[in-house]
Each structure stands twice: as structure tokens, then as C-alpha cells.
Amino acid sequence: MDYESEGRLNILLVKLSALGDVIHTLPSLAALRGHYPEAHLTWVVEEAAADLIRGHPCLDRVIVSRRKTWLNEIRRGRISPTLREIRAFLRELRDRPYDLVIDFHGLLKSSLLVALSRGKRRLGYDSWQELSGLFLNEKVPEDLSKHAVDRYLDLVYHLGVSPLPKDFLIDLPDEAEKKVAAMLKAGGIIPGKPFIVISPLALWETKLWSDEGFADVASAIGEKLNLPVVLVGSDRRRVEGISSRVKGNPVNLAGETSLKELACLLEKASLVLSTDSGPMHLAAAAGTPVVALFGPTDPKRTGPYGEGHKVIRKELPCSPCFLKRCKTRECMIRITPEEVFDAVCERLTGYPEHVASGFLKGGWR
Questions:
Q1: How many other CB atoms sit within 10 Å of the CB of residue 72?
Q2: DSSP state of 163
Q3: Strand order across the 121-125 sheet
Q4: Cis peptide before 97 (omega within 30 of 0)
Q5: Bridge partners, 45 (sequence order)
Q6: How far apart are CA 200 and CA 209, in angstroms?
Q7: Rounded to whole angstroms, how far apart are CA atoms 362 and 365?
Q8: Strand, coil or helix: what is 359?
Q9: What is the C-alpha to C-alpha distance for residues 226 and 221, in angstroms, rounded to an integer?
Q10: pLDDT digits over 218-262, tens only?
């Protein structure tokens, strides 16, 4: 069907979480906006990643699902007000006659929203994972050998969208830029001078490296490279434990930044050392070189996207296992501080004049 001949399209994108997955969907959003410049584009997302796409220049609307909060509220006995909020969410989800709904998520929770949206054309992967294909009427084969960015773009290309340079545009307000500059200044980091960000946390315990390892590398960066270190993460107490082991005076900004402020910070860094996590993907999207530590997951599918990055991973018979729990965590334990520091030095040598080349006022290109 030629949607462009029917006037303004209503298109719904379903990608709920997590932060890295939402970032991986941004090039698909940009490609859709380029192909359908007059369409009304809505994105439904869960609250943890919602701040990243609010105000996005390619979107007309963001609908936020507070699924985890609703479940917690119901467990606490706050049933009536929670049900009222859920009904309001569903009314908003269904207040437009969607011509096209794209399920980038491919799980039961996203397929239910696809069904509830009552979209005419419901596109997703030819997969029955968690019954995700139950409510689709148009399917595309999912090639799991591809990186997530390219896998999501397969859905867009199926619509006849021409391949374009992959655009990780994010709207970054001036207020975020000013706050980050103030935090760096308060930490003694001179504007325009190089610094390194370390993001040591991850949602899965199997993705975590040792606190001692991160502290040792941070100390070496300060002592041997004479570069300041900034630590980030959602758990300030956990990061403080790492910071207390570091020789010198690392700047601990854990828990101090919004997602867009974190994006500004990572964009300014000379290099980011990270676990397989949302901040890793955010840094790669900004064009900042990343040294990424991988264990249970496959960097070919979800590694830092683009050129100039370094992945450290141990080739074990059981890896990638994609397990969130493991008795040995051998794949991460085998990574040594020495090889991580060597990788940091290698990336810095390869990119001695790194600046935030991808950043423009209002977003990244």
C-alpha cells in the first residue's frame, strides 16, 4: 500500500527498554522521519529511558509506560489509582488511528501494546519469542548475526526506506550542557582538557567486572597518563566504594546526572571505559572511543557501534551464554587490569586529538 498518497500517516514505534536498545533504535527513527517527513510519529517507551527521547526533533509525541511502577503500586495495595493511570495510558495509546505500528522490541510486553494500539499494519520480526508474533500481520526475518542497530533497520528497510548514514540524533538542551560544564569545573577539570569516564555498573551481575579492577585502572590513568577520571553510574554508594580505592581524586558523578546530562558528559570525554551497559552505548552513539568489557553477551550483536572502539572479551566455550547469573563469572574474572589499561592507552594513542565531532546544538549527527 502506498501510504504517502493517503496524506499524513500515523506511525507508532514500540521500543520500551532498555537504554541501550532505545539508543540502537534511533537510526531507525531518523530513517523513518526522512522517508515520511509529514508523518505523525509516536514512540511508546518505558519510563527508565523516556528522558532520552523526550523533545526529539524526529518525534511528534512520546507515550510513557510506567509498567514497573504500576506493578509495584499494585503490590502495595494502591490498586484504584494505579488502574486509573493505566486506563489513561491506554486511552492515550489508542487516541490515534495508526496506519503503521512497528514492534522493535519483540517480546510479550511489546506485542500486547501493539494489539491494544489497534494499528492497521502491524510490523515486527518473524519470531514467536514470548508470543511476540501473535498480533502482527506483517513480519520480517530476524537476523541475529547482525548488530542490533542493523537488525532494527531491517524493519525500516522492509518499508522501502532507502539506507542512509546512521543518525543517532539526540536532543540535548542548553541546560544540560551548562550543568555538566559546572559539575566538571567543580571537580577541577579544566574546560576543553581531556578526561576519561569510567562506567563500572551494569544491570546484570554477570556483566560486572571487579571493583578493584576498575579502581586499579583508574589509579593508573591518573598516575601514568596524568588524566582526570570521572566515575558515573546509577548507584552512587557502589561507585563511591570504587572511588575510595582510587589513588588521586576521581570525580564521582554517579547518581548526579539525568540521561541527557550523562549524554553531554560522555560526548565531552576523550574515552569511556565501561561494562556492557547503557552508558557504553550512549558514548558510542556520541562518537566517543569506548573500551568495553564483555562477558556473557555477544559484542557482534550489542557491542559499541561504529569505529574506534575496543572490546575486551575472553573466548570461553560457554560464552556468550546470555545468562544473568553464573556461579563462576569466569569470563569477567579473567579480564586483568593490565590489559584494560593497555587498551585504554591504545585507544588514546589512536585518537589523540579526539573532540566531540558528532555533537551539534540540539543533538548528534
A1: 12
A2: P
A3: 61-65, 40-46, 10-14, 100-103, 121-125, 138-140
A4: no
A5: 64
A6: 7
A7: 10
A8: strand
A9: 6
A10: 999 999 999 999 999 999 999 999 999 999 899 999 999 999 999
